[in-house]
């Protein structure tokens, strides 16, 4: 039987998934996002249904985690959320999410979508996403309109974007020039900030997607 992993801190939602999908799928569920990776590796689900907003770890972090491991990066991830902004959708897509479903859930639409992706679970996603620390230089305008230039390290890289920390405060939709410092500082292209995460005492982390490329990026 096909298998789903449900990650949601709301027991009522997990119960609803079981009631509506248990006839067609074996359901593995957890309220603890920190347990999700171990469950995915142990049970090898055909798809993962992931809540976006959980107290211990965000859906962004889990998408990033699943895509960092070879045993889970091919598993389709569907983000399920009561409210998700377009910029959050873009970020999740950059981190590997296959699709999005709002709450209350349209289970007919969900079953149809799951049946479609089931046939492709052995095929790599169109973009490989890897944890990779590569020095890059960002050049642009900060939240106060001042020009800046900063060298930092990528954390997670795909063909169309990357994550990195940056000490400078940026607005969502800010556009920066991106340079690879380990290849003579050549300009790769321009990228737009699609999300920022801040933790007290640490530089903000930003997700960027390329708008244009002048040269080959890290992944081809």
Topology:
Layout: E1 2-7, H1 11-21, E2 25-30, H2 33-43, E3 47-51, H3 59-66, E4 77-81, H4 86-94, E5 97-102, H5 107-118, E6 130-131, E7 135-141, E8 147-157, E9 161-165, E10 175-180, E11 186-197, E12 205-213
Parallel strand pairs: 1-2, 1-3, 3-4, 4-5
Antiparallel strand pairs: 6-8, 7-8, 7-10, 8-9, 9-12, 10-11, 11-12
Task: Write out key terms for the chains shown.
single chain; 220 residues; alpha/beta; Rossmann fold; Thrombin, subunit H; 6-stranded antiparallel barrel; elongated
CATH topology of the largest domain: Rossmann fold
Largest beta-sheet details:
6 strands, antiparallel, barrel
- Unreliable stretches, pLDDT < 50, 5 or more residues? 119-126
Strand order of the largest sheet: 7-8-9-12-11-10
Give the termini distance in whole angstroms. 36 Å
